[in-house]
């Protein structure tokens, strides 16, 4: 997005985990255990989405083994689901995860000097029912994080990884068609599943990247390169699979009208391109442009690593040099994005929920619930909003045979809610517990972990100052 620079902070990694030995043991034991959730109302999020009332669901070794079967295995852990609602684990289609970093000068073999505890921010996903996340600026370190989660050292979501390619001269860049194609092939060899195209690509390189990704069977998500402004149609080439922000459209025009919104929706529809509206992003940006109190008062701010807390305050790119004109501009984008979502809906462009979490003022996990609420406010039904964070993203990621709905044989990625989210989308926040990676994490445990994290961040607060980062 136009105002977003990829911070160097995403460059790194952590192999730390809390209570590593204990959690590994626990995972091993639990993976052989079975669970039953009794008397629960299942919202399966299948296409017909018939709610199954007072159901019994059996989970064995991380898989949903039966729904309303007569045979209930013995020696199971029983979870009472009376008057509660079960939805598939939520999917955030746009995240940026922290990774360990060195910001001071380098020498060969130096490596990172600042280590993040992966469990700390992964906890925020789980605490908020997010069991799958799509990292849109994947680095080699993120493969390590994903492995830690898979082998049970860290409790966290499933992670899909996209390799970001931009034009210009920083990061993974390509400025010719042949360089673009080679960069895609390297990404494929390194194990990435997806390609993310970025704003500064030239037209020829962009098209070559999208075409090479087609050949390599990698789906493409990303920005609409700036060069296409005034010629947006040219960016909609076959195999451009997903636009990563509504803002990509608003950056392509100076006319924020319904007619323009409809034209864009038609372009996406005709090309089979999906959209991650990411409405919350611009809403947060407009708030940050108004006042930094919007960041300080975020409900999840206390859970954010102190260095990031410091960065979001002392180096806030939206608040720096702000003016009433700038605030008004952001507000006009917020309004136009609502028109875009209405147009996408009318045209039948599939939309998925994504947050850009990890960027300034956007907290992992919790922000997805803001996004769902904004999608409903923009005209989606509660069912459509839930679909945008469950079945549809699973389909786009091509893992819909494993996650995205509650059906026998799928992974038991599940969120138990105290109240029905189809009645009010805000009920997605009323989480009683989450099933992830074969484990049941109840509300009590989540709250204990969150309050420990809050205490730790508070204790460490004075050790981190973004302005002194060159010393770290
Ligand atoms: Zn992003």
Automatic annotation (TrEMBL):
<dbReference type="InterPro" id="IPR051781">
    <property type="entry name" value="Metallo-dep_Hydrolase"/>
</dbReference>
<protein>
    <submittedName>
        <fullName>Amidohydrolase family protein</fullName>
    </submittedName>
</protein>
<keyword id="KW-0732">Signal</keyword>
<feature type="signal peptide">
    <location>
        <begin position="1"/>
        <end position="19"/>
    </location>
</feature>
<dbReference type="GO" id="GO:0016810">
    <property type="term" value="F:hydrolase activity, acting on carbon-nitrogen (but not peptide) bonds"/>
</dbReference>
<feature type="domain" description="Amidohydrolase-related">
    <location>
        <begin position="86"/>
        <end position="441"/>
    </location>
</feature>
<dbReference type="InterPro" id="IPR006680">
    <property type="entry name" value="Amidohydro-rel"/>
</dbReference>
<dbReference type="Pfam" id="PF01979">
    <property type="entry name" value="Amidohydro_1"/>
</dbReference>
<dbReference type="InterPro" id="IPR011059">
    <property type="entry name" value="Metal-dep_hydrolase_composite"/>
</dbReference>
<dbReference type="InterPro" id="IPR032466">
    <property type="entry name" value="Metal_Hydrolase"/>
</dbReference>
